[in-house]
Specification:
heterotrimer; A mainly alpha (about 325); B mainly alpha (about 300); C alpha+beta (about 500); A: about 325 residues; mainly alpha; 14 helices; about 80% helix; globular; B: about 300 residues; MetI-like fold; 11 helices; about 75% helix; elongated; disordered C terminus
Chain lengths: ~325, ~300, ~500
């Protein structure tokens, strides 16, 4: 089995290389340059040219490409345009925050989604089931930034239960948790809908399979069938969805992070792209991809552990 | 036996298969009719398409006509859902929004599915070879890239015209279809009827076209149904970042993010924007759920 | 006995509470911060920087008048070319970098000219800065310069930096640890996340802002955060934000209308190089509608670049209203009786409703706009190319010359690429004329030239201002914490 994972790791590493090449090409193709954005309107074209030259942006693309990769191999991921701060430490410092948001968000969604999915199968085809069906479809349609705004208006402005922006002070655990509630809720709404539907669908499929019918004919109570037998089958798709979703959230929670003014990888990358801060964007995307690949590997490992059939493949 | 002949035979077979599929379709349709959620879904999807096609006949006003004296109004007798920042009728803009958005989402799904399925079949049929590994690698590279960021970067480079947007979003969706069709092909490959066909000496393409493709379609169709809604959501997200819209043409995702900007001037814009999106997503989810239920005979045979 | 011990306990508790008084934190938002070495970037984030850096003189009470600040007093020489400043004594720099002296003044100003930093244009007339003694410094100009006290010293170009700090640390390290004389020092900066400034104990002057800490954050929706009580104020730069701020429960907004707003007509465009084509556009536009729709009840209509209240304001500017018949006449004169097609540039991040009004207005006379809607960064790199019609606004300072300087020939930000020698000559003359009235006349003439040649269609004036939580902060008499151009000088805010 180790050999299998070793091979998978190599493949995923090659994916990482592919992505990074893709990223580098993309960022060179984006029009506009950081100089116009950073400098004030008073800056003359000479000043602009000087800055572009300092940032090394006037070199031919292949040279820039080569220089960039050479530096990466020496651990130098570049510097923020003009603030001069080294990129990699800043990017990595954003990771824990996104990690917390994504992890809490996904597990919260998983828990609620599973409970609702099981409940809807238990009461299959009743009004409750149909209402939940519509509700989860509605939840899927909730756009993150709208959910964020709605939650803020209700819970921060009207009720004043939770703070609207920020992450809380260092060392103040309670405060940090309070700052996490609304972002996690905003993130979870569509995930809960998604997970509920998957759980319900998988359970519905397995509930009518042969071995379950056999179990039923033996008189085993329905609840036990659902939990003992069918849920096992749900693990594989759930694990895949949850873990890869978690990986995607690490790079993709842009809206939540921007609106709640939280530090995070997604926000960092999008802001960098908008500001044409190339090194930051590239480093950020690379980190996001690495984390995603780790998540994918994790999903595969868990699946292999849980489902012996895969191990035999 | 030349290639042409084989192609002819394959097509004839495909035609026969299609005919049988259509007969099965009626059965499928019958099942959908019996399933209320699926009916609602189908109705909504149909409404989307009708709005797109018949907008000029259905819409109460010209979606581009401005009425500056009546900006940011709530629902009234004249403007059923109220007006936007230029006094344009919101209902008309939602209906015409279908004209902009429906072609895009169907384009994305059809194009993404077509290319994805083709590549997936190739990968699945030639599984284990370099081609398979290469295609999987390509799928991985595209799907590992954080979605929003990929689309953001591509739009920044190539612009946000409707055609470009469709191509970019289709590109983003290819891996999902690719992987699913590959998985389907892998399992079908070992089915008895395929092995029988191979044993009888049938040519590869014939097997692929007439046996594998039709049988692998159900999950693709189901995914496509959901994707219609997913793509609308992505457009809404992109609009928030300032991309993917082409004013003054109304687009559903665009209306939502513009409504967000003007929420304090008039909450109605974002309310109707959300309602539209909710209805679309519900429609697509229920419809694709219904398709899944009816295309899988096992589930409905019991109970 | 029991009562006595209860009293003691209460007293102790009270004193503990008094010592443990929570620190006063002022919370605000900031625009994206690139650099604290503002001289090298040129762009100011004044709300943040006004806490760290100071000026020799500063704007007085929300007007364009100046009052002594780091400079105690000054004398202007008879020929008007030399200003001798006597500096405050005992002013300390942050982080233990010693006392503020004339050397720092010389360094701060000459650096801009020597290294050709963005504000070099403002100091174009500078000959040199001479250190007379530790607290006396002479500013020697090549010729009398009217802008020294209006825009050079009290704004971007006049911020005082610590010579020792910049030279020792190097510009890029200085970026991370800025050193100035202001009432607060920067203690932490997380890019795009937060900027924290702490009270500088050794501050030389009288504090207006009585806070222990000031924290700036970067939320994408400051209004909701203000309403939720998470922020105290948010500087804003758009009419919609101000209008929303005034509407929102518990919030209010103050602003100044100093951004000039116009429709730029590319003068080198093959069709629009004919002044009749441009006049056709100006006649076809319904400016009042644009102002109504994009002004949100805050921005007024204007008829010339220089805003009212500034010397150089052209009171008698012609007031154009929509005249379709005239527009068609101009079209005929230009040789396009049925209209033409021209490219238009729109910013997709701001979704300006004015764009649609313009498009429809012009369509009515047959002028078709090919609208290119691009995202913000692309917009700002394409706007100066002079290839598009666009509706745009620029910041100004209390000097008409600054307002009009953008339209000199070959100026990068001359979005119309309009070129008029007489205008250029007048501009240069104005930069050297000391008499206020004469100068105002020159600026009025310049605006007349632009208007006659239809280089653009004036729209109005947009606000710079701030939204704040009612009862949280006070901006002082005449809202003096809001500088004359609407930018917030945080050091003059009072916490309630």
């Amino acid at each position: 089995m180790l050999k299998y994972f070793g091979k998978r790791l190599l493949v995923l590493l090659s994916v990482l290389v592919g992505v990074v090449l893709f990223v580098s090409t993309l960022t060179y193709l984006i029009p506009g340059d950081p100089a116009t954005i950073i400098l004030s309107q008073r800056a003359t074209p000479e000043v602009r040219q000087k800055l572009i030259h300092e940032l090394g942006l006037d070199l031919p693309p292949l040279v820039r490409f080569g220089q960039y990769w050479w530096k990466i191999f020496h651990g130098d991921f570049g510097y923020y345009m003009l603030s001069g701060r080294p990129v990699l430490p800043e990017v990595l410092s954003a990771v824990p925050y996104t990690f917390i948001l994504a992890t809490v968000g996904i597990f919260f969604s998983l828990f609620i989604g599973m409970v609702l999915g099981i409940l809807s199968i238990y009461y299959k085809d009743t009004l409750f089931d149909h209402i939940l069906d519509v509700l989860s479809a509605t939840a899927l349609s909730v756009v993150q930034y709208v959910a964020a705004l709605g939650l803020m208006l209700v819970f921060s402005v009207a009720l004043d239960w939770f703070p609207a922006i920020g992450m809380g002070d260092k060392g103040d655990i309670v405060g940090q948790i309070r700052h996490l509630v609304l972002p996690v809720l905003a993130l979870s709404i569509s995930w809960i809908g998604y997970i509920q539907r998957i759980v319900r669908q998988v359970l519905a499929e397995t509930l009518f399979s042969e071995y379950v019918k056999t179990a039923k004919s033996f008189g085993i109570p329905r609840r036990r069938i659902i939990i003992r037998h069918c849920l096992r089958n749900a693990v594989k798709p759930l694990v895949t969805v949850v873990v890869t979703g978690w990986g995607a959230l690490l790079g993709g929670s842009v809206f939540i992070e921007s609106i709640f003014a939280r530090k995070g990888l997604g926000r960092l990358i999008v802001t960098a792209l908008t500001q044409r801060d190339y090194y930051v964007a590239q480093a950020g995307i690379m980190v996001a991809v690495v984390l995603f690949i780790i998540a994918v590997m994790l999903a595969e490992i868990i699946n292999a552990v849980v489902d012996p059939r895969i191990r035999l493949e | 036996m030349g290639y042409g002949n084989t192609l002819q035979n394959a097509l004839k077979n495909l035609g026969l298969r299609a005919f049988h599929k259509i007969r099965k379709q009626k059965w499928v349709i019958a099942k959908i009719v019996r399933n209320p959620s699926a009916m609602v879904g189908a109705f909504i999807v149909a409404l989307m398409i009708i709005s797109a096609v018949f907008a000029p006949w259905i819409a109460p006003h010209d979606p581009l006509k401005t009425d500056i004296e009546h900006r940011f109004e709530g629902p009234s007798a004249h403007y059923l859902l109220g007006t936007d920042e230029l006094g344009r009728d919101t209902l008309a803009r939602i209906i015409y929004g279908a004209r902009t958005t429906v072609p895009i989402i169907f384009g994305v799904v059809v194009l993404g599915a077509a290319i994805g399925v083709l590549l997936g079949i190739l990968a699945g049929y030639y599984s284990g070879t370099f081609l398979d590994k290469l295609l999987l690698w390509i799928f991985d590279v595209i799907s590992t890239f954080p979605g929003i960021i990929l689309v953001l970067a591509l739009v920044a480079i190539f612009g946000s015209s409707d055609l470009v947007l469709t191509l970019i979003l289709a590109f983003w969706r290819i891996p999902s279809y690719g992987r699913i069709s590959r998985t389907e092909i892998l399992s079908i490959k070992n089915e008895t009827y395929v092995k029988a066909a191979e044993a009888l000496g049938a040519r590869r393409w014939r097997i692929i076209l007439s046996h594998m493709l039709p049988n692998s379609l159900p999950p693709i169709i189901v995914l496509g149904g959901m994707d219609l809604g997913v793509v609308v959501m992505s457009i809404a997200g992109l609009s928030y970042l300032g991309l993917g819209m082409q004013p003054p043409k109304p687009s559903w995702g665009g209306m939502l993010s513009i409504g967000y900007t003007y929420i304090r001037q008039s909450p109605w814009l974002i309310i109707w924007g959300c309602v539209t999106l909710v209805i679309i997503m519900i429609g697509c989810s229920l419809f694709s759920g219904g398709l899944r239920a009816s295309l899988k005979p096992e589930e409905s045979l019991s109970e | 006995m029991k009562r006595f011990s209860v009293l003691v306990i209460l007293l102790v508790a009270a004193s503990v509470l008094a010592f443990a008084a929570p620190e006063k934190v002022l919370r605000a938002t900031s625009t994206w911060q690139a650099s604290f070495d503002t001289a090298s970037v040129g762009s100011g984030n004044i709300p943040v920087h006004s806490l760290i850096y100071e000026w020799l003189v500063r704007y007085k009470g929300g007007t364009a008048e100046v009052e002594p600040w780091l400079a105690k007093s000054w004398e202007v020489s008879k020929d008007g070319t030399t200003v001798t400043f006597r500096l405050q004594q005992g002013v300390q720099f942050h982080k233990g970098y010693g006392e503020f002296t004339a050397d720092d003044v010389k360094f701060s100003i000459e650096r801009i000219v020597k290294e050709k930093l963005p504000e070099a244009e403002t100091w174009k007339n500078l000959d040199r800065v001479e250190v007379v003694d530790k607290y006396t410094v002479k500013l020697i100009m090549k010729s009398p310069t009217p802008t020294i006290f209006t825009i050079a010293l009290p704004f971007q170009a006049g911020q005082i930096f610590c010579k020792k700090a910049v030279e020792e640390m190097g510009a890029s390290a200085f970026n991370k640890t800025p050193v100035g004389t202001g009432p607060f020092e920067m203690t932490s900066f997380e890019v795009g996340q937060s900027i924290t400034l702490t009270k500088f104990a050794k501050y030389w002057g009288k504090r207006t802002l009585d806070a222990d800490k000031v924290v700036f954050s970067f939320p994408s929706d400051p209004l909701t955060a203000l309403q939720a009580g998470d922020l105290d104020f948010a500087p804003v730069y758009s009419a919609l934000n101000i209008a929303d701020g005034k509407k929102a429960a518990g919030l209010d907004a103050v602003f100044r209308l100093t951004r000039f707003w116009w429709v730029s007509l590319p003068c080198t465009d093959p069709i629009l190089k004919d002044v009749n084509a441009r006049k056709a556009i100006r006649a076809a536009l319904d400016i009042d509608a644009i102002v109504k729709v994009a002004g949100f009840g805050i921005a007024p209509r204007g008829y010339a670049m220089v805003p009212p209240g500034l010397p150089g304001y052209w009171k008698d500017a012609p007031k154009y209203s929509r005249d379709l018949a005239k527009a068609k006449e101009f079209l005929k004169a230009a040789g396009y009786p049925n209209g033409f097609t021209v490219p238009f540039l729109a910013n997709s991040n701001t979704n300006d409703p004015a764009v649609e009004i313009i498009r429809q207005n012009l369509a009515e006379v047959g002028i078709k706009l090919d609208v290119n809607s691009v995202e913000d960064s692309t917009y700002w790199s394409l706007a100066p190319t002079g290839k598009y019609i666009t509706i745009i606004s620029y910041q100004t300072l209390p000097d008409a010359g600054y307002t009009l300087c953008w339209f000199v020939s070959d100026q990068f930000w001359n979005t119309m690429k309009w070129s008029n020698k007489q205008f250029d000559d007048l501009y240069n003359k104005g930069q050297m004329t000391m008499d206020k009235n004469e100068r105002a006349q020159i600026h009025i003439k310049m605006q007349q030239l632009m208007d006659d040649d239809c280089a653009m269609a004036y729209v109005g004036y947009l606000p710079n201002g701030v939204i704040y939580r009612k009862g949280a902060v006070d901006f002082g008499p005449n809202n003096e914490a809001l500088l004359v151009n609407g930018v917030v000088d945080t050091s003059r805010i009072r916490m309630k």
